[in-house]
Design a protein that fits this description.
Structural class: mainly alpha
Helix content: 40-55%
Strand content: under 5%
Low-confidence stretches: 1-28
Number of helices: 19
Radius of gyration: 21 Å
Strand order of the largest sheet: 1-2-4-3
């Protein structure tokens, strides 16, 4: 789920909240511990788009399907075809499409060198492995799907649809709402992957269907990403612009009052919950100038306060499924802007 900054302004508004979780002007302030960086772990990304666009015949594609059975099964959905030969024939036709080949060329130009991406993923995976020793590094593939799939993350495999992550001013753009499309750039990519990985460790109570439960779930997820990637701007984690982040903290008291006065925390109506959790250009129940997903943003603040006040290790936080406990023991109060 990458581009939003201006940390100096953000830190000025949220010095209490961010404390040691934020990246300060001193690069060492947010650096990962040497015990994490020294872990023996390597990430090598396989550029599947090159192999698939380089193939010419049905036999070539059958070879690739056999070479990458996990990709064929989970991404290409091989089981939906009558036979591997049927899928291979379809791939021949698709990859001969002139528009798709132009898109592939554009991706190749923009992502000619993915060394930085590999290194960022490697560092993030080291941090996940450090906190959660059971974490096994998945295979990482890139692909150009013609805007059919942006990102697939499972325990065994990650597939990155690079065409989704072309620059915002590029001719080729996914057919999604603009307020969401702006979050599909390089800087968002690794935080999106780490956010997806967080779900494996984010323990919940399935019986709790309140808005507070949703808020805490996303709060734990964003907190996880920040803990794994402490030098990453909050902008690239939650997908707000720097101005939106600043304005949220400027109006935190008002936002919180809206939730309290309308008794929203224990709301169970899915339609009402979606107003504050679901994707939207703005939270119109509060203001058309307020960004969407404000419930997630508030949940993140609550979880930050909970971990800070209770001095918990990250795995302990992620295992806690009692949202009422998290909320009560967080001591959360809106911060007054300075």
């Amino acid at each position: 789920m990458n581009q939003l900054l201006k940390k100096s302004l953000f830190l000025a508004l949220t010095s209490v909240l961010v404390f040691f979780y934020s990246c300060k002007s001193d690069p060492d302030a947010c650096a990962l511990d040497s015990d994490i960086l020294d872990l023996d772990l390597e990430v090598k990304i396989t550029r599947l788009e090159d192999e698939f666009f380089g193939a010419k015949t049905t036999a070539d594609y059958l070879f690739l399907l056999d070479k990458y059975p996990d990709f064929a099964s989970n991404f290409l959905q091989e089981s939906l075809y009558e036979s591997p030969e049927s899928l291979a024939a379809s791939l021949v036709e698709v990859h001969q499409d002139s528009a798709l080949r132009v898109l592939y060329d554009s991706v190749n130009l923009e992502f000619a060198d993915i060394t930085t991406l590999e290194k960022e993923l490697e560092t993030a995976f080291k941090a996940v492995k450090y906190y959660f020793p059971d974490f096994q590094v998945p295979k990482v593939y890139t692909f150009v799907s013609g805007f059919n799939s942006d990102l697939i993350v499972s325990d065994e495999m990650i597939v990155i649809g690079l065409d989704y992550f072309l620059p915002a001013d590029h001719t080729f753009q996914p057919d999604i709402a603009r307020y969401m499309a702006v979050r599909y750039e390089k800087e968002y990519l690794v935080p999106m992957i780490v956010l997806a990985i967080s779900s494996k460790y984010n323990i919940t109570n399935p019986a709790d269907n309140t808005l507070l439960s949703e808020m805490i779930y996303y709060g734990k997820a964003y907190h996880f990403v920040k803990a794994i990637m402490p030098c990453t701007s909050d902008q690239y984690i939650i997908g707000y612009t720097p101005d939106e982040i600043a304005e949220c903290f400027d109006n935190e008291e008002y936002i919180w009052a809206h939730f309290v006065e309308n008794e929203l925390l224990y709301e169970t109506n899915p339609f009402e919950i979606r107003k504050y959790i679901g994707e939207a250009p703005f939270t119109d129940a509060i203001s058309t100038k307020a960004p969407g997903r404000l419930g997630r943003w508030l949940g993140w603040n609550i979880v930050d306060d909970y971990r800070f006040n209770q001095d918990l290790d990250l795995p302990v936080l992620m295992m806690e499924s009692d949202v009422e406990k998290i909320f009560r023991q967080s001591g959360y109060r809106p911060r007054r802007p300075e």
